[in-house]
Amino acid sequence: MELQDYARAIAGRWVWLVAGGAVGLVLAVLPGSLGATEYRSTMALYVGADRVTAQQDDDAGYAAQVQTVVLPSVAELARSTLVSAPVVELLELPVSAAELAGEVTVNTQRDDSRLDLTVKDSDPERARAAAQALGEEVARRAELLYPAADGSLLGVSTLGTASPAEPAGRTSSTGTLFAGVGGMAIAMVLAGLADLRHPRVRSGRDVARVASVPAMPLPSAGGGTTRDDRLALLWSVLPSWAGRRAASRVAVLGAPASAAAPLVRELRSHDASRAGTDGGGLELVLATGVRPLDLDAPVDGVVVVADGRTTTRRDLEAAVNSVRASGRPLLGVVVDGLLPRAARWRARLCAGARGEGTWSRAVAEADTSGPAVVQQSLTRVVAVLALVALGFTRPLPLALSTGLLAAAVLLPLWAPAVRRYRGAILLFVLTALALVSGVLLSWSASRDHGFAPHEAVRTAVLLLTSVGGVGLILWARSVLPFPAIGVAFGVGNLASGVLALPGVDNPWKFELSFPVLVITLSLVAVRGRPLVTVGVLALIGVVDVRNDYRSDFACCVLAAVLVLWQARPAGRSRRTSAWVAVPMFGALATAGYWVLTQALLAGVLGSGLQQRTATQIAQSGSLILGGRPEWTATWALMQFRPLGFGLGTVPTAEDTLVARAGLAVTHIPTVDSYLEHQLLNGAVQLHYIIADLWAATGPVEVLLGLVMAALSVHGLADRLRRRRATGLVCALVPLGLWGLAFGPLSDNLPTLTLGLGLLLVPRPRHAGSSGPEEEDVLGSAADLRPELARG
To answer: Which pTM was predicted?
Structure first.
């Protein structure tokens, strides 16, 4: 489906949009108008985390995580029964501790250390008293989250008193507007999917995609003089379609068959004098049967009649193929049954609900001159904006993301592209199974574990954004050159990083390095010169070393080696399988790890990195284990709960004890603080993608992670074999694999998404298959064959 087809599908089913917007508005307003009125009161809390960050000076990124770690831990405490139970007992509330905890919502302020705790109740005084008591209880118990020898590292205080209770059933005008727009957006996507499944023939433009023959639209019966005039025009041009000015014998074939007979009867019943003058003795023969075409006498040609209300492109293709198989010439196609301009409101509503063709729109499309360039430019603009939205990773309300919204809205455009790439369907199937598994595991764990809805939604949104983003990039590969895809994604990611800079003590490592790498390597891919690419990677690697980013430096070195390796002089050996390059990639990674470790210990990359590396190896015996001790916690938890925890499941004290026992083998002094404040703080977050996926959705998602890794390596190997791997994809694969084994889900999933979208290998086309040739997006850049060999 093209962008223009999507727009026409939406316009053709405009009733769906109206209905979707109405349903959204009703759902936004209805909860507040039913049942008893509820009241809400809010208590503001200030969270002082200065001493926490001071105690974590060994982790350069911890100060940046105050917003994402410290405040959420206090928020989870506020929503727990640990806080609500004493309040229920103190105020003698007629609800249980779990019911009160379920009525508590906590909002955090961006770039501010304030929490707003809101309580709902049917009694306004009781709501305000509960909010006040809960706020004071949170302030008291939050000090226990970060204990120290001289008191608490965390200071939480109430800001004034709870606000007066106000009705909670009222929906804001902004929320109502968003609900209406959201309903229309869902209806828009459904309209596009409906047209994707059964694309209608509505105009000559649809006919041109099937056969290069003349086409004429006709309004349906009831169109008044307009239909009569169009019938007279058709009667007069049929002889010219047949290549004659005098008598002609034309067969009329319906698609479906019922579309032909009414039109033949109308043409035959025309005024005899008008037919004699304009038609020149034209004779019409009703054709029956499609496979094969049934004609009992010779004819000058065949005209196919498509019904603009029911005929799909498949129906038209079947009729056209039948005519061609019969050996008779196909003269043209008549698109009948289009909604006339003067139709009544009931007919317009039916047409808008069913997606039927409109005569006025069909004529306007036929009269448009030179729209191809404009349509192509508009499609590219939409693709660029969608990629920018995909790269922008800042969370939206309800834990949504701009990437997920863009992928959802454009689903009818990129869905057909998924089938054309190896492994893409498998990714979507495994993701769906994983989400179902995560819900079932969460339900099973609810008997003895808490549940964090926001965390469950956040994880699900991350997964959906990733697979939807892969589909979006696959579609963009057919409309944009490779550098444009990388630059658009990188610009969105850079904008997201710039917005997050306040409060980040290492901006390059946590926010800027990835988008800068994507943008610069995409730009140098235009020239395709290996030495320039290696120079850019070297420059980024130097900045990595100066900013304590060892893993990114190692990936840049590996990418530079791969770029130089494929620039070697071409031999005379036969073409080999893509998987032959996989052992070479593994050997390079292993050798690179050893060389990098020795360089760090020797102080080649600076005394700071030398000291930190030596300390980690001395404590745990391994650089990897010292830098990522969560591996041992994950292994302990996997043995304890092999099936995982489930989406949004809150770990218990027993889970914490199991993970602590696993971490003890690393002998890292600060590992207990790391466990309590990050790994198991209100959610199971094990700091690397495969483990996070296992915890949220079970073994199915581990398989998904392994499939992602295999598809990434296979795509890179295929490019290396054909000497078409740019510096960007050479860097994205090791970065993505590093994220799978060592990187947090939210921070590293965008890397995997971009890498998979660029590297999935197209399926080979079968002989005789229709459709445009698959564009090799990486082939749009200059060929990367050896520049060094020419020197």
So the answer is: 0.77
